[in-house]
Predict the 3D structure of the following.
Amino acid sequence: MSPVLSVIVPAYNVENYIAETIVSLQKQTFQDLEIIIVNDGSTDKTLEIVNQFQKDAKIKIINQENQGCCAARNSGIGIARGEYIGFCDADDKWSPEKAISHIKFLIENPDIDLTFSWWKLVDEKGNSTGRFKACKKQSIELEDLLKENLIGSTSNVVLRSTALEATGGFDENLQSNVDLDLWLRIIQLREQNVKCVEQFLVDYRMRPGQITKNWKRMSHYWNIVFNRVKLKFPERVLTIEKEARSCQYRYLAHLAYEAEDFKGARQCLLKALILYPPILFKTFNWWVLTAAVLSTFLPESLRQSISEKARKVWARRGERLLMLEAK
């Protein structure tokens, strides 16, 4: 008998994290699932660690030459038997209630194709950073995703296998923004088919060398994805294009700052303001980012001191907000 849920885990050189990820999936309160781990040509001990879990009948292992995360996920999709499909990157963790929360929501809402949850950002060692994403928007539209990837990473998502069949899975020609590209294709299937499960159910790990920190690559592929949608829906996109591009430049400014490309951060920040000045008043995050980027004009020792203090304040604020959201 086929499982209700298939969880796909693409893995490449994650020897320090993969066991923790697998255990988090094994500890799901919903147990009618299979865990498909795709070792994408790892050169460290990832495969050796994964093989230690072979005794678990729920776990299936695919070992392939390195082809990238899109191809790895598509390989997992190719053998998945579940009516529903979830993803968990090999350095992230699902909370024990993740699977049951999504399955229950999808069963109760047959008009929904894709669900995503709230998530918390942790550092390389799994410690809280005080940063999180808790989407409160009731109805997610195409325009919303063009302005901001509210869904976030693949680890947040559980969707119907039929939605993947209809859209063709991940685009292996893209080297960035692959998740956003798929979400945009799924949201076009039918009206109001994307909803958030309003619970913190994922720990998303930030670590050195992640593709999300390569802001120039992110910019290039975001434009490809954006222009695809613009070509298909020119009138809809025109109404929000300046705001969408401004939001993207704001995000790129953040990535450039984190990568210590301060000139790039200042350039992106300026472009965001020129394109859509009202963005200055959008959120508290904007003011924090602006202050951080402007501090790069100061002597390095003073900039670092301000940055460290700001991060501590931000982390404490985030922890307070997390406690309020969780209530």
User: Anything to note?
Assistant: Residues 5-207 form a domain with the Spore Coat Polysaccharide Biosynthesis Protein SpsA; Chain A fold (CATH 3.90.550.10). The beta strands are 5-11, 33-40, 59-64, 84-87, 93-94, 114-122, 128-133, 157-160, 194-205.
